[in-house]
Amino acid sequence: MGGNYLLNAGPAPDGTIPDVQRALLARIGRWYHAVKESFGDAVPASDLTANQDVLLTRRADTLYVHLYRDPEAACSLRSDPCRAATDRPGVWAGSDGRTR
Fold it and tell me: Are the C-beta atoms of 100 and 35 separated by less than 8 Å?
């Protein structure tokens, strides 16, 4: 699938990374660690929905839902009723990096 994420963070003239940028990079790192499974070796799957508010990726028989922003109301993910009861529950990480 591939992609780039422009961080726009760089060192100060003396070569140090300012604390505010260091904190932002750490936050992005925590977020990516929580969601990297949905990107690595995944393929686009948005053709499975008409909902333009989400991006879907798929890896093998696992479908990942990417939200462009945190939901304003409660939401739930339902497993396919045709699949075994051993399905893993839906997991997503919000913009704050917390897994829900």
Answer: no
pLDDT for position 22: 92
DSSP state of 22: H
Report if residue 67 sits inside a domain.
Answer: yes
Tell me the mean pLDDT in the region 9-25: 91
pLDDT of residue 87 exceeding 60, the answer is no
Structural domain boundaries, residue 29: 15-100
Three-class secondary structure of residue 87 per DSSP: coil
| DSSP reduced 3-state for 82 | coil
In a domain, 3, yes or no: no
Cβ atoms of 45 and 56 closer than 8 Å:
yes
Identity of the amino acid at 70: D
